[in-house]
């Protein structure tokens, strides 16, 4: 049984169709990378999964139950299971690193502060920031801030984490420390959706690579299949340009 089943999903901005017939099945622990030209619908797919844009047609089945994106309670539950990190990390500037990670679990969820703090410290250790827990965001590098954003997303204990170009805004020398963090998460069994232009990284960590173009899934396969032996001309063209 797949953890997440995306079935014939359609989405549009106003009346402009953006996703067409997107079907994708994800197992627990899968590292799914979405690749494809700019404007192909990768971010939109992640937004629909999070309920930030309502699907027009199709279904998302999470842990065996159909997600009702029109239901507030269902959305709240969904966002406990699925978290997203964007290119722009948007940390709270007036809060320390530790406070940034603790704020939603304590203030929104009402979880006990002691346990949240314990978990937050462990998460910050996982992303290599134990020594900066009392720093403010503007005292950190971009790479460190992005790692705080990842820890903050993990603080709600999601089972699926969506990472939308999280290294795209970083200076080159900071990309690797964030990729290292993602590599480590990948080895720990959480399901990841990765949108990234770091193709050698995508090739190394992914269990599935999904090539999208014009709002459709053109081809899905292992990194070897998609990069080395693409079956569709469109994939072949894309891959030949990026490798
Ligand atoms: P990708 O992440 O693959 O670059 P997007 O999902 O951002 O692609 O965009 C897919 C299409 O949807 C593009 O044609 C883009 O112009 C359009 N689009 C994205 N965001 C919006 C929006 N907020 N309003 C209208 N159109 C949008
Ligand atoms: Mg995008």
TrEMBL record:
It comes from the Bacteria. Signal peptide: none annotated. It is a peripheral membrane protein. Keywords: Amino-acid transport, ATP-binding, Cell membrane, Membrane, Nucleotide-binding, Transport. Residues 1-239 form the ABC transporter domain. Transmembrane segments: none annotated. The keyword ATP-binding applies. Pfam families: ABC_tran (PF00005). InterPro entries: AAA+_ATPase (IPR003593), ABC_ATPase_HisP-typ (IPR030679), ABC_transporter-like_ATP-bd (IPR003439), ABC_transporter-like_CS (IPR017871), MetN_ABC_transporter-like (IPR050086), P-loop_NTPase (IPR027417). One of its GO terms (molecular function) is ATP binding. It is found in: Cell inner membrane. Belongs to the ABC transporter superfamily. This is Peptide ABC transporter ATP-binding protein. It comes from Hafnia psychrotolerans. The gene is glnQ.
């Amino acid at each position: 049984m797949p953890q997440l089943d995306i079935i014939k999903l359609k989405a549009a901005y106003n009346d402009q169709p953006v996703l067409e017939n997107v079907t994708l099945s994800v197992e627990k622990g899968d590292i799914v990378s979405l690749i494809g030209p700019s404007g192909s619908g990768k971010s939109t797919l992640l937004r629909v999964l999070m309920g930030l844009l309502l699907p027009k047609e199709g279904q998302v089945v999470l842990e065996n139950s159909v997600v009702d994106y029109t239901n507030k309670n269902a959305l709240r539950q969904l966002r406990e299971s699925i978290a997203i990190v964007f290119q722009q990390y948007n940390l709270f500037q007036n809060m320390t690193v530790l406070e940034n990670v603790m704020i939603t679990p304590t203030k929104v969820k009402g979880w006990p502060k002691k346990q949240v703090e314990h978990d937050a410290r462990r998460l910050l250790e996982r992303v290599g920031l134990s020594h900066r827990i009392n720093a403010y965001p503007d005292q950190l590098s971009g790479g460190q801030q992005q790692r705080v954003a990842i820890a903050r997303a993990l603080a709600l204990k999601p089972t699926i984490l969506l990472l939308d170009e999280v290294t795209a805004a970083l200076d080159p020398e900071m990309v690797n420390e964030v990729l290292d963090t993602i590599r480590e998460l990948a080895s720990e069994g959480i399901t990841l959706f990765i949108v990234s232009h770091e193709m050698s990284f995508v090739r190394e960590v992914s269990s599935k690579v999904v090539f999208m173009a014009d709002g459709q899934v053109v081809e899905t396969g292992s990194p070897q299949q998609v990069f080395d032996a693409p079956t569709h001309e469109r994939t072949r063209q894309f891959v030949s340009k990026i490798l």
